[in-house]
């Protein structure tokens, strides 16, 4: 192994020469945090889901799952309100192919609802220096005593694969890296964006 390459949002094609080995360390994006709004506000203050990372060879596709969105809270008054819900962790998808060995497989972490007095935290991510995979924080509630908070986003999954080209000709692997989940960004209390998706390629 001689080089690290970071693959970010968009499609990528990776070619392996005969006998070449590559390691794909795949991180799904984190979900966006939910917002908090008054019931008169126009739209539902949810975040958006984090994007997946897919690796396709021929007709087979591995997936590092993206974290689920945190949903938003709405406040009308003390007898008519609801709180946001936390996003779920991304789920990885494996297939079987003799060229690929699974080195690590961990689904994303679910976000957890805590006290309404605190920010609803997104799930933790994996690679701090890249800011990958973590869920976005939810919004502080606009209601009395901080009710109607937004939920935090779920974390992205991490899937690490080792690929060996055991053919006599080059092979190509298709990678697609999705976008991070967006926090709700309406007029009142906003949610935070989730962490990015990425692939760390070693070959």
Write the layout of secondary structure elements.
Blueprint (H helix, E strand, L loop, with lengths): L3 E4 L2 E7 L4 E7 L8 E3 L14 E5 L2 E5 L8 E5 L2 E3 L17 E7 L51 E7 L6 E7 L20 E5 L1
Parallel strand pairs: 4-7
Antiparallel strand pairs: 1-12, 2-11, 3-10, 3-12, 5-6, 5-11, 7-8, 9-10
Write up what this structure looks like.
This protein has no helices and 12 strands. The chain has about 200 residues and is an all-beta fold. The strands form 3 sheets. Strands 1-12-3-10-9 form a 5-stranded antiparallel sheet, with no helix packed on it. The chain has a 4-stranded antiparallel sheet with strand order 2-11-5-6, with no helix packed on it. A 3-stranded mixed sheet has the order 4-7-8, with no helix packed on it. A hairpin with a 2-residue loop joins β7 (about 75) and β8 (about 80). The radius of gyration is 19 Å and the shape is elongated. The model has no long low-confidence stretch (mean pLDDT about 95).
Distance between the termini: 5 Å
Return Rg in Å: 19 Å
In total, how many beta strands?
12
Low-pLDDT residue spans: none
Number of helices: 0
Overall pLDDT: 94
Shape: elongated
| Quaternary status | single chain
Report the β-strand fraction as a percent range: 25-35%
């Amino acid at each position: 192994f001689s080089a690290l390459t970071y693959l970010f949002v968009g499609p990528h094609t990776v070619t392996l020469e005969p006998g070449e080995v590559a390691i794909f360390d795949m991180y799904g994006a984190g979900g966006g945090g939910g917002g908090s709004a008054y019931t008169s506000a126009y739209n539902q203050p949810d975040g958006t889901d984090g994007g997946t990372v897919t690796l396709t060879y021929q007709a087979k596709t591995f997936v590092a799952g993206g974290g689920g969105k945190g949903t938003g809270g709405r406040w009308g008054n003390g007898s008519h309100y609801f709180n946001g819900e936390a996003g779920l962790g991304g789920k990885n998808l494996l297939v079987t192919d003799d060229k690929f060995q699974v080195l690590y497989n961990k689904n994303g972490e679910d976000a957890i609802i805590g006290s309404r007095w605190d920010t609803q935290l997104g799930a933790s991510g994996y690679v701090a220096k890249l800011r990958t995979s973590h869920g976005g924080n939810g919004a502080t509630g606009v209601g009395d005593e901080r009710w109607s908070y937004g939920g935090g986003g779920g974390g992205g999954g991490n899937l690490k694969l080792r690929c060996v080209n055991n053919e006599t000709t080059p092979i190509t692997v298709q990678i697609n890296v999705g976008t991070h989940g967006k926090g709700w960004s309406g007029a009142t209390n906003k949610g935070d964006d989730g962490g990015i998706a990425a692939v760390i390629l070693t070959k």
